[in-house]
Amino acid sequence: MLGFPSRVLEFSPSGVxxxxxxxxxxxxxxxxxxxxxxxxxxxINALGLRGKEVDxxxxxxxxxxxxxxxxxxxxxxxxxxxSLL
Length: 85
Fold this sequence. Notes:
Elements: E1 11-13, E2 20-22, E3 26-30, E4 40-44, H1 68-71, H2 81-84
Antiparallel strand pairs: 1-2, 3-4
C-alpha cells in the first residue's frame, strides 16, 4: 500500500481478547498518510500513554480517554488538545 509509514506504533496484547496496549517508551516521527499532512512526532511514555512522562510528585494529573481525536492523530505530541489542556 502506498503512503503508509515504514514504522508504526508497536502494540502488545492487553490480556483481554481483541484489545491491545501501546508499548511504552516509543518516540518517532510519523509521516502522514496524505501529502498535506506534515511529519509529526509521537511520544509514548513509560505508562504507554501519549505525551511526556507523568510526574508522580504532582498533586493533580488529568487522564484524557477517547479516540483518535483525543490521541491527536496527525499532530505533534505537544500540539494535541490534551497536551494544551
